[in-house]
Amino acid sequence: MGLSRNGNIPFTSDPYGVRMPSTFVVRVWMPDRPGALGQVAGRIGAVRGDVASIEVLERGGGRAIDEIVVELPDASLVDALIREIDQVEGVDVEEVRPVDGGHLDPWLDAVQTASRLVETSSYEELIDELVDHCHRGVAAEWAAVLDLATGQVVGSRGPIPTLSWLTAFVDGSRHSQAGHVGLGDVTWAPLTASDHALVIGRDGSTFRAKERQQVAALARIADAWLAGLREIRRLNCRLAHPSYPGPTPTLVGPPAATG
Prior knowledge:
By secondary structure, the chain is an alpha+beta fold. It has two domains: about 25-100, Alpha-Beta Plaits (2-Layer Sandwich), CATH 3.30.70.260; about 105-240, GAF domain (Beta-Lactamase). About 35% of the residues lie in helices and about 25% in strands. Strands 2-3-1-4 form a four-stranded antiparallel beta sheet. It has a four-stranded antiparallel beta sheet with strand order 6-5-8-7, sandwiched between helices. A hairpin with a 2-residue loop joins strand 2 (about 50-60) and strand 3. Helix 3 packs parallel to helix 6 (about 210-240).
C-alpha cells in the first residue's frame, strides 16, 4: 500500500464498517513527461476505475503533482488502486481521500463559490460563505477570517488554532518574502481593502500552488464585495439622514437583497 508523504497510510476504509463513497481524490507525484499520465490512467482502468477529472496542482523540477478524481465500482478497490498506481515508474501516491456526494469538479466548484460570494447581502453572510468553501472545497481541516483592525476571529470552520497563533502567523507572513504562503500545510491570503486575513490549514497535507492561487482569488473576490457592501451601507446612511433633500428615497442594496 502506498504511503502519504506525511507518513500516514491513505484513508481507505471506514473504521465503523459503513459503506464508503465510490468517488475518491487521488493526489499523485509523477514525472513531467509525455505518457506518464496515460500510464497512470491505464492502471486506474485495471481496477475498473474511471477518471472523472484531472487537475495539475503544481509542476517543476521535472515533476508534476496531479489531483485525479477517480470513480470506483466499489470502495474496497482503493487499496488495489494504490498498488496499481505505485507500479508506474517514478509515480508516487501522496494521498487518497473520499469525496462525499459523488463527482467533484474543481473548476465548477470554484465558479459556483465565486457566484455565491457575490450573491451575499451582508458582511456576516459573506464571511460565512468564504470560510465554508475553504473548509469544504479546498479540503481544509480548518478555516478562519481575522479582522486585523480588532484582532478578532470573525468567522471560522473546524478546530482553528488559538487567536494568538493565528495573529502571530499572519503578522510573520506579512513581513516575510514568501508573500501569501506560510507553512506548507497552512496558507493565507489578505483581504487588503477590508483589513482582514483568510487563514486555512490541514494536518500534514501541503497546499500546492494552484490551491494557494484559488484561495487568493476567492479572497480578492470577497474583499471587493465587502468594499461594495460598505459603500452601499454608507450610501443608505446618507439617503436615510433627515438632512437629505427631496422625497424619502428608496434605499439601495446588492442584487440578493433587492430581489
